[in-house]
Amino acid sequence: MVRKIVENVYFVGAIDWDRELFDELVPLPNGTTYNSYIIKGTEKIALIDTVEPRKEEEFMNNLKKLNIQKIDYVISNHAEQDHSGLIGKVVEKFGAKVVTNKKCADFLKTHIHIKGEDVITIEDGQELSLGDKTLKFIFTPWTHWPETMVTYLKEDKILFSCDLFGSHLATSEIEQVGDEKLLEMAKRYYAEIMMPFRVPMKKNIEKVEMLDIEKIAPSHGPVYKNPKLIIEAYKKWISNEVENEVVILYVSMHESTKKMVEYLSESLMDKGVKVKLHNIVNADIGEIAIDLVEASTVVIGTPMVLTGVHPIAAGAIYLVNALRPKTKYLAIVGSYGWGGKFIDEIKSMLSNLKAELLEPVTVKGLVDSEGYEKLEHLAKEIAERNLN
Ligand SMILES: Cc1cc2nc3c(=O)[nH]c(=O)nc-3n(C[C@H](O)[C@H](O)[C@H](O)COP(=O)(O)O)c2cc1C
Fold first, then answer.
1. Helix, strand or coil for residue 32?
2. Which atom of ligand 1 lies nearest, measured to the CA of 258?
3. Dist. CA 148–CA 286, nearest whole Å
4. Where in this chain does the record put each Flavodoxin-like domain (predicted)?
5. Number of domains the chain contains
6. Are residues 227 and 264 in the same domain?
7. Are residues 11 and 124 in the same domain?
8. Mean predicted confidence (pLDDT) in 92-118
9. Average pLDDT for residues 303-327, to the nearest whole number?
10. Residue 358: DSSP 8-state
11. Residues 262 and 190 in one domain
């Protein structure tokens, strides 16, 4: 599919309507796209990133439709293979030089065997003229990997942001998706991919905000006609502000822990606290990640299994720790049979979180009146912190 973005700037990417998983981890309820863009200057032609290698045929057909015979520069904003995978082919077929930063060049050498002689390395803020169009490169490390950068097309005020501001959303209307759907999918993408880099992200967003941007063209999902929409959303997500929201992640074999989390969530709701409850056994981890973006509190509910946490809970706890949400409070509830040490285990597994641990509630077997009292106390503690 070829789509005109503005005069002499075209989308030449590929749509993956039915891809179900990304990184063998993240579910894709709406498929995805791999966006690549052709920029035709009066003197030179540049390509911004390429596409997932399995979409080579579609990508090459797009270039054929535009009658592209020669590409002078292929800009590599990010070395991950879903964007860089066909750079070697573009060099070979169209005689392009690869333009990127030093770190990305090193990654391209190791990850896809691009030769040093085919690369032009650029510095942060450097510009490259295509004749009547000028590209400016802005380094935005850790907008996924350490080498990530964005490219700004000065005359048309388009930011090619690669994974930053991306969304996994397959659509034929590259610019016409409703704001609500786009923001929902962008939040999911932020939660899964960008949230662990929330702190370094602040500097990058400041850098991007200094540009006069009319469109943002990411490397997954639709182009933003209203850049403010996504920039303001990112600013809110990366800020230290949390919402009055409690995410409860639980697993339960015989419903003892389930009864505890259900009581806790009822009590929290009665007190005016918003609750997002996930039974993690078959949960979509993207949904959990979204809920972690702004929640003030995370509650882990697990039974004791083989002297530790239930293995399914271990997976969820590992995910929470790796995603580094801005959660302020943490609580643990669970049921046990005879003994073990799951509280200490959970605490050590969540060492990335800078959250205050509230008094854990554990009960032997099925929760009784004393257990309910403790849960009521925990609900009060959480509500007080959320509502003040
Ligand atoms: C496979 C298995 C292993 C267990 N291992 C332990 C254990 O090491 N220590 C313990 O105190 N209880 C252990 N239990 C007992 C459970 O923790 C207990 O039955 C608990 O009430 C289950 O809570 P649930 O109904 O939320 O699953 C084990 C139970 C099962 C089924």
1. strand
2. 26
3. 23
4. 246-383
5. 2
6. no
7. yes
8. 98
9. 96
10. P
11. no
**Index of the ligand 1 atom closest to the CA of residue 308:** 8
Asked which of 181, 216, 238 is the last residue of a domain, the reply is: 238
Q: Is the CB of 335 under 6 A from ligand 1?
A: yes
What is the 310 CA–ligand 1 centroid distance (Å)? 9
**Percent of the chain residues past pLDDT 70, beyond the cut:** 100
Claim to verify: residue 131 and residue 250 sit in the same structural domain: no
Q: Are residues 254 and 310 in the same domain?
A: yes
What is the C-alpha separation between 291 and 271, in angstroms, rounded? Answer: 20
The rounded Å distance from CA 135 to ligand 1 centre is 60
What is the H or E stretch that residue 111 is in? helix 102-112
Contact 178 CB / ligand 1 (< 6 Å): no
Residue nearest to atom 6 of ligand 1 (CA): 305
Check if 366 has its Cβ closer than 6 Å to any atom of ligand 1: no
What are 287's two structure tokens?
């949904």
Cα(8)–Cα(59) distance, integer angstroms: 17
Atom of ligand 1 nearest to the CA of 366: 21
Place of tokens 């850049």: 227
**Which residue's structure tokens are 């979509």?**
284
Q: Mark whether 13 and 74 lie in a shared domain.
A: yes
- The CATH number of the domain where 378 resides is what? 3.40.50.360
Dist. CA 168 → ligand 1 center (Å)? 39
Residue 341 Cβ < 6 Å to ligand 1: no
Which tokens go with 73?
A: 């520069």
Where is the domain boundary, 181, 211, 238?
238
Indicate whether this complex's ipTM tops 0.90.
yes
Asked whether 254 lines ligand 1 (CB < 6 A), one says yes
Distance from residue 336's CA to the centre of ligand 1 (Å): 5
Interstrand relation of 274-279 and 3-6 (parallel, antiparallel or unpaired): unpaired
The angle subtended at Cα 154 by Cα 94 and Cα 123, nearest 5°, is: 70
Nearest CA to ligand 1 atom 20: 336
Q: Are residues 252 and 369 in the same domain?
A: yes
Q: At 153, which CATH number?
A: 3.60.15.10
Res 387: pLDDT: 87
Query: Which domain does 80 fall in, by range?
Result: 3-238
Q: How much distance in Å is there from the Cα of 106 to the middle of ligand 1?
A: 50
* Token reading at 379: 């609900």
**Does one domain contain both 54 and 179?**
yes
Q: Residue 113 pLDDT more than 80? A: yes
Question: Residue 346 C-alpha to ligand 1 middle, in angstroms?
Answer: 16
Q: For residue range 14-27, list pLDDT tens digits in order.
A: 999 999 999 888 89
